[in-house]
Design brief:
75% helix; MetI-like fold; mainly alpha
Length: 301
Amino acid sequence: MSGTDFTSQAGSVVRSGHRPRASGAARRSVYRWSMRLLVAVLLVIEVGPLLWMLIQSFKTSNEFLTGSPWALPHSLDFDNWKVAWTTGDIPTYFKNSVLAVFPSLFFIIVLSSAAAFGIEVMKWRFSNTVLILFLAGLLIPLQMVLLPMFTIYFHLHLLNTLWALIIAYTGTGLPLGVFMMTSYFRAIPRETLEAATLDGASLYRAFWHVALPMITGAIFTVAVVQFFFIWNDLLLSLTFITSNSRRTIQTGLLNFTGQYGAVDWGPTFAAVCMTIIPTLLLYLILNKRVMRGLTAGGVKG
């Protein structure tokens, strides 16, 4: 074989083999770095405001008046946190939020699971119509029902009570709860429920002891999703609660506005941090489980 033929064959091998591999590796490297850059940008957008707010909670009043809003505090002084916790009455607002949120979650889970079981498992004549009526609740803006609800609560003497919030949260959370629970019940094998019926289980026993244990992940997911919706509510609490002793954590933050609209920014930022940090930690801990629960209802078993 001549030297020219050997050189041409080697060149063809290089052209046919190594260059495409190098080009493919380069594309994968560019893709990885672009994804890393995108994640870094999103991380800055999401975490940056939280860190900035945490930094502001340690500043004094003089630092807010004379310093730059981007400057670091001179010291980590927890006086703002103490003022927000004591003078700002944060424990009372936390207690009211807990007393309003968790009973609402209980009613939403029980009622939505029972309704979804009746709609999807029992399959009666108007089950699809009832499901559509529940789904229609997702299309109605909350602002449209505020005035009728306020009028009803006024005549029932429920204004400035936590029952007003519990009933409102339960009613507004049922459409989404029924929709999600229906998809989860759809994924349950019908053979399991039929076997329970053949073994002599009544309808209620099949619901409580067979169906519900099979959707514990779904119940957990619905509870967490609804928890974030209800805990962060401002509109309903601001509409139905005017007494300071019944305010929830979100409306309680309005008390940090002083006379003539003046705001004591240090305690205000500290109070907001107290509100966000628990829910943020809860989300970080339960994030993967919630994601698995949200996708589980879309797979038919």
